[in-house]
Design goal:
Length: 211
């Protein structure tokens, strides 16, 4: 069995303080002399990225150019925040290292692959994570985000595993796992079990025992 984790909200605490993201979006808006308002930032937030063409049209900016600038600033600010410790791995991330002793472990994230790599370095998980899969830099990446099965297809082509379990924290993650035939474990960091990676490990071991 291959254990696959989402990144943000599961392994990386990047969502409890979004100052890094606001800096990235403010820099993007400034590059086009657009007002740095909450409304304009919201149009560029990850949750709204599938409406990116509409956002570009509302700004009167070429969509490819807007995406390129947003990607550049997003990447710079998020990696800098990881490297400085502004955003950190969750304190229970050592569970991933323990799981890697028994199972292949990988990450599939909608974040850029460079961010996934920066997290793996910061968490000292280089030897624990077999495959690190994230989005690319071009506009086509939007169409391939989870719950699209593209990222799983890449992982499946690189492994010899027949069964997978995906650990995520959103309805989109659940849909993604269902679409590609992975077992799914939902991690709720707000307190509903499983609410931490130790409890997730118990669920993973239960899934493995059912094989």
């Amino acid at each position: 069995m291959h254990v696959v984790f989402d990144l943000d909200g599961v392994l990386l605490d990047s969502e409890s303080d979004l100052a890094w993201l606001d800096r990235a979006l403010d820099a993007t808006l400034a590059a086009f002399d657009l007002p740095r308002t909450d409304e304009n930032r919201a149009r560029l937030y990850p949750a709204n990225v599938r409406e990116f063409e509409q956002a570009a049209a509302s700004f009167g900016v070429p969509v490819d150019e807007l995406w390129s600038v947003r990607h550049e600033h997003y990447l710079r600010e998020k990696i800098a925040a990881i490297e400085s410790g502004e955003i950190r791995p969750f304190p229970d991330v050592d569970v991933v290292r323990d799981l890697a002793v028994r199972y292949p472990v990988s990450i599939i994230s909608n974040s850029p692959v460079e961010v996934v790599e920066a997290f793996v370095r910061a968490a000292d998980l280089e030897t624990a994570i077999d495959h690190r899969i994230g989005r690319g830099e071009d506009l086509l990446a939007i169409e391939r985000l989870k719950p699209h099965g593209h990222f799983f297809d890449r992982l499946d082509a690189a492994t010899e595993q027949d069964t997978y379990v995906y650990v995520g924290d959103s309805p989109s993650d659940r849909t993604f796992a269902q679409r590609v035939g992975m077992a799914y474990i939902h991690l709720d960091r707000d307190g509903h079990p499983p609410s931490d990676l130790a409890e997730v490990r118990e669920r993973i071991e239960a899934v493995a025992g059912e094989e």
